[in-house]
Amino acid sequence: MDKEICQELGTKIERRLFDALAAEAPLVPAIAGSLLASGGKRVRPLLVGLCCRLCGAGITPETLDAAAAVELIHTASLLHDDVVDGASLRRGVPSANVKWGNSAAVLVGDFLFARAFTMLNRTKHPDIPRIFAEAVESMAEGEVMQLGVDGVSSPSIERYLQIVYRKTAVLMAAACRCGAILGGGGRERESALESFGRELGMAFQFVDDILDYRADPACSGKNGGGDLRDGKLTLPLLYALDAASDVERQDMLGIVTRPEKSAGAFRQVLEFVESRGGFERAREEARSRIACACRNLEQFEDNEAREALEDLAHSLGERDF
After folding, report:
1. Domain 3-317 sits in which CATH superfamily?
2. Which of 105, 234, 283, 316 has an alpha carbon 20 to 30 Å from 205's alpha carbon atom?
3. What is the Cα–Cα distance from 279 to 101, expressed in whole angstroms?
4. Domain range summary for the chain, segments of one domain joined by +
5. What is the 3-state secondary structure (H, E, C) of 77-97?
6. pLDDT in tens, 218-234
7. 109-129 b/e with 16+ CB inside 10 Å = b?
């Protein structure tokens, strides 16, 4: 990745992001600031800035407001997700719901959503708040859809892909489209960059699905096997089930839907997914989506912003494999 452009942009976004946490309620900067300071790739705000630069514009206060706002939306969704999932760890530290309680985590998440839209309205582009309002609506619907499939005996891959689009890809697509609007890219370029963000978001989640099984929690900052413990059937397991016999499928679903799962059960599922090619199929699907995302950049001039976006896409698609 072009480090210089990303470092310059990242520094400006970081400053604007922490300025946005100013509030009279001390819990807002305490909770949100703790989560933001614990890390995170800042992928979504970088997408706003890089897409704006790709379309030929400089980084203005409007761009920084929009970039910070999209990260606030993402952070709010993480706070709410951890409450819904009963998570105990986020980015290697105790999650906000564990440290401050569910009520505080939910309410600070609500504040961040509201603050994000206050900042988006400052851009004076009427389409931008609408695009993100639709994205947040879609994200919430994706979470509800997820509740509907958890524990289902025969979920479909198609249904899962719909959930991934809503929960993850839609916000990255909105970030890229927003950057194109701020950069004055025009409808055709807006559409191309929105598609770039959508495919990148899908690939990002597929890699997360794999890492949930295989990554070291000390490196990933997450509880390994969390999806399996929660009874979530993600892409590697769905692919493995698709390749299994009826008996194997029923045995695996019986393990996944148990309220409590032992370390032995986790190893059994892990070996099943590996033996049926679930990880490899999910990895290939992620790489295919990254390639599709990058094809949307071919119409743009070959410059440092395009190079940074391509490098970002490939680094996210191959992380920790």
Report:
1. Farnesyl Diphosphate Synthase (1.10.600.10)
2. 105
3. 36
4. 3-317
5. HHHHHHHHHCCCEECCEECHH
6. 554 555 677 888 778 89
7. bebbbebbbebbeebebeebb
